[in-house]
Design goal:
Shape: globular
Helix content: 40-55%
Structural class: mainly alpha
Oligomer: single chain
Strand content: under 5%
Order of helices and strands: HHH
């Protein structure tokens, strides 16, 4: 039986906060404020963050629009920074040091 992947709870708030910004290029609902960011301060770190959590953001948005007409793709971040990193990340363990 395959192992069920557990969601990273620490990262889930970060994914939700960045989702609308990565979808549209604007923080319409001030969700980045929960991370201590403004739209202006988020722009310089947006590409690095997209590379790190972009695949999780796409998964979140797919679930968010489940049952509704989703917005057109590519999302703003996909057009601006390229496709999200879909490589499997090896989880950190003390044994891997």
């Amino acid at each position: 039986m395959p192992v069920r992947r557990k969601a990273n709870k620490r990262r889930s708030g970060e994914v939700e906060a960045w989702a609308i910004y990565f979808q549209s290029g604007h923080d319409f609902f001030d969700e980045l404020g929960s991370l201590g960011l403004t739209e202006e301060s988020a722009r310089p770190i947006a590409e690095e963050t997209w590379r790190r959590i972009g695949a999780d953001v796409i998964t979140y948005l797919d679930r968010f629009y489940d049952g509704y007409h989703p917005p057109a793709r590519p999302y703003w971040a996909e057009a601006e920074f390229g496709p999200a990193d879909t490589r499997k990340r090896r989880p950190f363990t003390r044994a891997s040091r």
